[in-house]
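Protein modeling request. Please complete all fields; requests missing the sequence field cannot be processed.
Requester role: graduate student
Desired output: 3D structure, token encoding
Chains: 1
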Amino acid sequence: MLVVVEEAHKTDTGRQRQANEDSYFARSPIFAVADGMGGAQAGEVASRIAARAFEQATGEEGGGSPSGAAGDEAPETRLETIARQANREIHDLAQRDSARAGMGTTLTAAMVENDEVSFGHVGDSRGYVLRDGELKRLTKDHSLVEELRRQGRLTDEEAEEHPQRAIITRALGPEPEVNVDTMTFPARGGDVFLLCSDGLTTMVGDDEIAAILGEAKTLRGAVNRLVDAANAAGGRDNITAVAFRIAEEGSEPEEGATLISRTAEQAGLTSERVRRAGDRLRGQGPLPMPDRRRRGLRIAAILAAVALVIAAGVLLARQVYFLGTDEDGRVALFRGLPYDLPLGIELYSEQLSIGVQASTLSPERQDVVTEHKLRSRDDATDIIDDIEQREGSVAPVPPPPPKKQKQDDQGQASQQEQQGASSQGN
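Delivered output (426 residues):
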């Protein structure tokens, strides 16, 4: 069975917009990109509703999982249902609020299940797959220019530079009902999928996208380079890219690939296991004691188990990194595992911090800093570097002390990068 083994996502305002009205959702096995339209922040609202619809449908807000009949639906049906729900919510809000009349958003969503990736699509955001170095577009634009191209009235070259290429013929929101394109693609281990807004594809050609995805050591590095390339080409619109790689379940991640949080569990070092071992060591858990000898054997076994866990943790701690905050609340990079074991043993050490208070970051970035997700060094430093470049500069760190939219140009200036369900517009 194929599973997602690496993912990365980034959104950027671009160089010619004053606000970002793109949004995205990224919670494996479901990913989505929404590109809002309507101006005066209406596009941001529409795209945010689309992203939030996936969060609500997958039970993320309640910390649960899909239940009932919805959870048993085929992936294409599931994606279509969520898109239609979002369409109704956007349309109803636009009808109630004249300031948001006509607002809408594109939507391109993907869902990984078994050995297939299913898509739900409305508008001119796009879904791609990179296989064996070849990039293939999986979605069809719902745009005026694309319709003319399909009718043979425009060549591919004319379509790329047509002045009306931003006019879309289908979106979530403008009408009470919407037709959602769905399809399912048979996937293979090693495939890389990319969902993106047209702020990327109008600036960067498919050949360059393929080269960037194929050459980057990590998907995070690839996504960063895609956004940089779009900005270097002019950055005329908001830019959002969500990428994920799939592989056979249980296979080793490729060299340089992002380490995911299952690493600790695969090593047997879960927070629950450590807690139980600690409770028993302190005598807080149940400890049958028929006689002193048996009690001594049990204590010895517990100590041996704790020692094994510590040894495994020390070994793993040399290979993984995570983000957090130092004692002054600044964004920091740690090497090791985010666990404190009994007897005051820490499985991590601070490597550096930057002169940015975590409390000043957007809620989405605060989540990235505080979720303690295990990462490769390259992945972790990419995030640190990006926060540093946008928010502040590196601050020297003393040694740790002893354990004691689419949018019009009248919008307000803002630029945000998000991870998980992020709300911004085209």
